[in-house]
User: Fold this.
Amino acid sequence: MISVVVITKNEEDMVRTCLESVRWADEIVVADNGSDDKTMEIVKKYTDQIVAFNGQDFATLRNRATEKTRGDWILYVDADERVLEPLREEVLELVKKTDKSAYALSRRNIIFGREERYGPYRHDWVIRLIKKSSLKEWVGRVHEYPKFDGALGYTRYSLLHLTHRNIDHFVIKSLEWSKIDAKLRLDAGHPKMTKWRFVRILITETFNQGIKRRGFLGGTIGMIDAMLQVFFFYITYVRLWELQQPKPLDDVYRELDENLLKEKFRY
Assistant:
């Protein structure tokens, strides 16, 4: 028996096709992270196995959904991913007889409307097919990954990943994820952010994204993606700087207004 776990949050435009691509599974469990659009209305047409969780811990979301599954194998799919027919056939064959406990699936990435295979998108492996009895848990708040017993295999065929759908989609997701990344860095005791740390981060990340990850060699889209990734890292460290301040900025501005009223607008 194969269970599919689908992660959603405000994915009314994406979730229907995703669910259609996994209708062949024995059951579908949807883990929803606080959708307030029509996502749940669409989901309920495909399954009544729904786990609701409001939070920013993706590992916990996957773990809670896993508890609800009944299959011997679990395939994890995000709302912006599609299980293509060759992969479906491969998965159905693999689970019948294999000595592996989990499989990594490659992803074919559609970025700003085009499939890209440069740098990090050439071999984009994600561990998503796992034997339930071998799975220990998912860990990590953002870039979560599974811990499991046994050997890892690799599928021949790929998921289709519809990412970076437009600039708004990328920026909104970056703003959300940067909050989590910044808090993790604060909790880990990251050194105080200064002017020179910001300069170093901009230089280092431009090199990492443009040269090391070969974004500058990926044509126009590669250039766009590389610089947007730099933006994400920059915003993360700006948020970290905010968290390191002795007083929340909201409090600073509220006190300014209070003092203006108290001092008859003398400043």
